[in-house]
Write a structure and sequence with these properties.
The chain is of the alpha+beta class and 129 residues long. Helix content is 18%, strand content 39%. The strands form 4 sheets. Strands 2-7-8-10-11 form a 5-stranded mixed β-sheet, with helices on both faces. A two-stranded antiparallel sheet has the order 1-9. The chain is globular, with a radius of gyration of 16 Å.
């Protein structure tokens, strides 16, 4: 079976919001390049009379407060397409910096790296409570 990437990301965000006392979710479009030969190209579809650009991907960044006093961060990039439901959402985890580069802006840059208890599900060795 296939599901939309939007619903897959939303399910994860809702699960984390129910589990933690607070959750902040950022979602947005990305227009990411594809490599053809030795060159990179951004190719995307236009729809409607106003030629609305359809993003190639979507990002979702989820920030939650942990019981340890720090934050947990999960950041995903998913294709703007249907995906198989047997592919775990964890396969779309990316470094937050990859989203920042593709989106052109900083995300939660006011939070020091040492304040993250986990990043993409991995315990941060630099965490300071």
């Amino acid at each position: 079976a296939v599901v939309s990437t939007q619903s897959t990301g939303e399910k994860r965000a809702r699960a984390l919001a129910r589990k933690h006392e607070s959750a902040y979710v950022l979602t947005g479009p990305l227009f990411l390049p594809t490599v053809i030969g030795n060159e990179k190209f951004v190719k995307y579809k236009l729809i409607g009379d106003n030629n609305v650009a359809v993003p190639t991907h979507f990002f979702k960044v989820i920030l939650t407060r942990t019981k340890m006093g720090g934050f947990a961060l999960e950041s995903y990039v998913m294709p703007n397409d249907e995906i198989r439901d047997d592919i775990p959402i964890s396969s779309y985890l990316v470094p937050k910096s990859a989203i920042e580069k593709g989106a052109g802006f900083m995300i939660f840059d006011y939070i020091a790296d040492s304040q993250y208890y986990t990043i993409n599900g991995v315990r941060n060795p630099d965490f300071i409570s």
